[in-house]
């Protein structure tokens, strides 16, 4: 298959729970990941800590998320492994090609993500128009910056 883009590596995993402080205790205090920042979005019903593992192009975010309002959707803690993020070398071309193959994307299209990179989500479930999907897993495709592209393709 001749695809016009490459998946370069793991960019992030996002883990949700009802109390992100318990997640922080495990991932930051016990496992020793660095805490780099936080992010809050009313629209996405999320407050998250951004923990990091590794450096440079091999740096992986571990987003520790809880819903702002547990009574509202989306529920970032259901399922607890919320999503997996993958570095992509050419996000617009990837979306165009994958859509033509029948892959379903979540509403919202390409947009700026919490870490400042352009992102898009592959829907966890297919439908009649777009039968291909994440097969139960929400997948985030993330536009890799030039230095990451160089480092992960050498």
Strand residues, percent: 35-45%
Taking the alpha carbons of the first and last residues, their distance comes to 22 Å
> Rg, please?
16 Å
CATH homologous superfamily identity:
2,3-Dihydroxybiphenyl 1,2-Dioxygenase, domain 1
Structure summary, number of beta strands: 8
Q: Choose one word for the global shape.
A: globular
Structural class: alpha+beta
Pattern of helices and strands:
EHEEEEHEEEH
**Treating each run of at least 4 consecutive H or I residues as one helix, how many helices?**
3
Seen as an oligomer or otherwise, the chain set is single chain
From the coordinates shown, what is the CATH architecture? Answer: Roll
Enumerate the strands of the largest sheet in spatial order, edge to edge or round the barrel.
2-3-4-1-5-8-7-6
Return the domain count: 1
What name is given to the CATH topology?
Answer: 2,3-Dihydroxybiphenyl 1,2-Dioxygenase, domain 1
> Level of helix content?
10-25%
Which regions contain 5 or more consecutive residues with pLDDT less than 50? none
Q: Biggest sheet: strands, sense, closure?
A: 8 strands, mixed
- Rounded average pLDDT: 95
CATH level 1 class label: Alpha Beta
Describe what this molecule looks like in 3D.
It contains three helices and eight strands. It is α+β, with helices and mostly antiparallel strands. It has one domain: Roll (2,3-Dihydroxybiphenyl 1,2-Dioxygenase, domain 1), CATH 3.10.180. It has an eight-stranded mixed beta sheet. Strand 2 and strand 3 form a beta hairpin. The longest helix has 11 residues, at 20-30. It is globular and about 45 Å long.
